Amino acid sequence: VRNSVVLAVYLLFSVACFFTVHEHYFKDKNTNEIVIVEEEAEIVRKIFDLYLSGYGLKAIAKKLNDEGIKSPQYYQNKMYNKKLPSNKPEITGRYLWVNTTVKRILQNEFYIGTVTCHKTYTSKINHIRKALPEDEQFKHENFAPAIISKDKWEQVQFLLSSKRSNNVRASSSNPCHRYTGLIECGDCGCTFVCKKRKWKDKPDRIEYNCNGYHRYGKEHCTAHRIDEEYLDKLIYNELMSIKDEALSNYKSIESDVKKWMSNKGTVTNKLKQLNTSLEQRKSDQKKILLERIRDREHADIYTEMLEKCESDIQKLEYEIKSIQDYNSTIKKRKAEMKDSIQIIEEIIKDEAISDANLRLLVDKIIIFEKDKKMSIKIKLNAKFQKHKDCYDENGNLKDSAFTV
Questions:
Q1: How would you classify the pairing of strands 205-210 and 225-227?
Q2: Which CATH number fits domain 2-165: 3.90.1750.20, 3.30.70.120, 2.60.120.10, 3.40.50.2300?
Q3: Phi, psi at 187, each rounded to 5°
Q4: Chain-centre distance of CA 371, in angstroms?
Q5: Rounded to an integer, what distance in angstroms lies between the CA atom of residue 210 and that of residue 374?
Q6: What is the domain partition of the chain in residue ranges?
Q7: How many Cβ atoms from other residues are within 10 Å of residue 240's Cβ?
Q8: pLDDT tens digits along 104-147
Q9: CB under 8 Å, gap of 24 or more: what pairs does 165-168 form?
Q10: All residues at 6 or more sequence positions from 373 whose CB lies less than 8 Å from its CB, including other chains
Q11: What pTM did the predictor assign?
Q12: How many other CB atoms are there within 10 angstroms of residue 199's CB atom?
């Protein structure tokens, strides 16, 4: 009861604070419904899209300032007459964006309609506020209309954490390069840095070079490099092969369904036999248990017989359940496989992989070079094939092969 009261109090408090914190919503007094303010909501959508396209926090803040878009404090002042503190410097009155404001918006669950209460508590002893673990917080999903889809919000959270762990840093005005922070030298352990190579008669080419070679010299590492377009092609081709394999599996599942339907009569008889065997073993189990009570002198022998009987019962029950659930299991597998195929098709629909999907797929690319021959090891957040490439002294591809 006490927990219910606490939950109700926090929920009421969140409703009271809602409109002073989220300037992208307002409450319609006629209908009592929470409504999105589209003009301000478009700014939130723009920030999420920019981040997914490769822009960093500072780059997004600069772009918004350059376009004359005001920060959230401006709309709080406009809608709720919330003034800035008098002790703040003059520049804060210009309502400029900073990277911390952008990050708060990207991490705010409210934009997917979820409100979280009871995030912190204040110690009664030393009056210090501390964060509470997630399992002690109160989450209310679908509390408000969503500005951002849940899938897009989860993608952004993944990128925020992965960029932090990979130490990815973008410039203050441009998006980061596609493979920044993802490529590592297998020989010296340094990351690869992006370089733009220019020729008079050829188009510019983006390459990634071992930073260890440039910083410490050829005595410690080699000048191996990889072309961005080739990496894109490599990963795209692998996704295509995964898609083909998924389609093949989907067709095999349909074949399994047909076999199941054609053998349904046989399966029914099999179930009857298994159930009969199960009842027999359960009856045996009861008899053995009674015999063990009567003949305590040979209790160990009966215990072994009971264990064997219990093992048989478990196997029979599992087999029966597997047959009974076979139809629903196949349907579930078909649905899951279809979803997987649709996801892959969505990723490669423009015959290219977006920066966001690339970072969701790729965990690390490790490049080795020995005797002017380069090998590439790609680690994904899913099962992937190993790939080996060989280059000449000019960086041109000589040989390429997949290995399982």
A1: antiparallel
A2: 3.90.1750.20
A3: -90, -40
A4: 38
A5: 12
A6: 2-165, 177-265+326-404
A7: 13
A8: 999 988 888 888 887 788 877 777 888 888 788 888 888 888 88
A9: 167/191, 168/56
A10: 390, 391
A11: 0.55
A12: 8
